[in-house]
Hints:
It holds the Pfam family 2-Hacid_dh_C. Helices cover 36% and strands 19% of the residues. It has 25 helices and 24 strands. The strands form 5 sheets. A 7-stranded parallel sheet has the order 16-15-14-17-18-19-20, with helices on both faces. The structure holds nicotinamide-adenine-dinucleotide and 3-phosphoglyceric acid. 3-phosphoglyceric acid (3PG) binds next to loops. 3-phosphoglyceric acid binds next to loops.
Amino acid sequence: MTKDKYYIIDFDSTFTQVEALDELGEISLEGEENKAAILQQIRDLTNGAMEGKSSFTEGLSKRLALLKANRRHLKPLIQLLQNRVSDSIKRNKEFFQAYADNILIVSSGFKEFITPIVTEYGIKEENIYANTFKFDEQGNIIGFDKENLLCLDRGKIKLLEELALEGDVYVLGDGYTDYEIKEAGLANKFYAFTENIVRDSVVAKADDVAPSLDEFLYQHKLPMAISYPKNRIRVLLLENVHPKAIELFKREGYQIETVSGALSEDELCERIKNVSVLGIRSKTQVTKRVLEHANKLMCIGAFCIGTNQIDLNSCLDAGVAVFNAPYSNTRSVVELAIGEIIMLCRNVVDKSTKMHQGIWDKSATGSVEVRDKKLGIIGYGSIGAQLSVLAEALGMDVYYYDVIERLQLGNARKCETLKQLLEISDIVSLHVDGRTSNKSMFGAEEFAAMKDGVIFLNLSRGHIVDLPALVEAIKSGKVRGAAVDVYPYEPASNNEEFVSELRGLPNVILTPHIGGSTEEAQENIGTFVPSRIMEYINSGNSYQSVNFPNIQLPELKNAHRLIHIHQNVPGVLANINSVLASNQVNILGQYLKTNEQIGYVITDIDKLYDKKVIEDMRQVPATIKFRILY
Length: 630
Ligand SMILES: NC(=O)c1ccc[n+]([C@@H]2O[C@H](COP(=O)([O-])OP(=O)(O)OC[C@H]3O[C@@H](n4cnc5c(N)ncnc54)[C@H](O)[C@@H]3O)[C@@H](O)[C@H]2O)c1
Ligand SMILES: O=C(O)[C@H](O)COP(=O)(O)O
């Protein structure tokens, strides 16, 4: 421990999340008729002083007069403040205890409530500099000790001058009065603390911004409760990812950047630099080249089901874990498909278009019920299987074909070949995934094998169907109705025109890839994907990753966690363990899972170890990525 560095920490809105005098007002003015108005006056006075817009001393007198507080109000105030200590302060108690000699609380608040809060964290009473109240005989707060420097304008400066600390001084606070210490030349650096409140005028003057105490500790190489400040994790969200996701990432403390549409490969290559988490939907292509430009990427969130737009193998080579939302929009796709099947069987789209043109075309010709019709589902995964259940409830006979063995639901019948399904079905609905081998799996041959006058739906992926063959089948009457939601090329944003040979064809429903675009689905996805990503970042848990070996890890308790991603070649685990053994590291638990490409080893170790082990782990041959968690 060094004696020549001092850390000056503010109390209100820094050590605690709140301004104590505002909270005192909430308590002391209970039952007061115009409480809200008085509290607002108190808050305005606090903010005026904190932003450097008004005299501190004058504001303090006015605030105390408005408060009408009594000694008996202090106990509930202290209880409240104990629960409102800033999160990053709470988790870094160890720092306060270890550096007690060097930490000073300098506040224009009052010792009566500051002392009981901060001493719990190991801060020494003699290192607390704050005002004190004056009480009358009935215990009413009637003023403050006017001899105390901290009640004066520029009081913190006067105090620091008097203290004449020898060594480097760093100030952490949210208010203008904290900045003034640095301005007066009494501190090396002022950090605007923005975990609880961002005061633009203070941030503008600060040498640096500390969105949490972690950032301050990280910069000063001081002991930290977590391994990496969360504000350093940059998240890039494309394609209008739901606001819920933004909210969750923000709450976690990450830095968020959003783009409303997709980005081209070149644009993404540029934007991906320094990004730790990339969030996309079905449009953005994450290619090998994009990954080569990603210097910090830890994981990708596909805020959808399909992941064919991501080069999953290159992600493995780069140690980037991919997560998606495998079930969040399943129901939405199925509901749309059911609706479209009925609309197409009744020619509703064309009839509706005619009505808008003033044409009354009442006829039953070509309109049929869906009951007793044979629905052929290609791809009996989550969507296919759920469609099967709802279609049966409507009285349809369901047939399905899948390349893998799938449990048949209800009375659905399995077809051994695609041809068999095509020959039997009145309605064919495609729900396979977008893997490369499925490109153009549906072409002239498949349409030819279908019944005449079939109804065809594609809500899976655009590249699966050969579009000219579909157009031909519609024009020839082979397909008498179609619903298409996905296209080989889709506009990058709503501002781009949709160009396709499908436009203008009869009894064809065209939708702009909205199978999964319902409010419910998007909100579910916006919650689910960030939860997986945060689990992965915070604990290493890779459960439900699309490409990583899936490991569900126990909670990290009283240990440090070494997370090692490596190429799956012989001998890596042996090398890891030999590094740990040669550094005399005590292993508390070890978990390994591999897939064809990578190995994922998690080792929980005793907190006391030589930091050299971290460098040694990075040097293990075949290492792709290594990080440590605590
Ligand atoms: N339109 C939309 O907005 C929208 C929304 C969600 C999903 N999707 C697409 O739908 C696809 C399916 O979603 P899911 O959740 O049911 O996926 P899933 O992985 O649960 O099911 C896909 C099924 O298709 C089967 N399959 C793959 N290739 C096949 C082939 N050539 N022949 C027969 N069967 C084959 C697989 O074995 C699997 O059972 C997604 O991959 C996505 O591309 C589109
Ligand atoms: O894969 C999916 O979930 C769908 O294709 C939806 O994609 P979107 O999020 O781009 O609408």
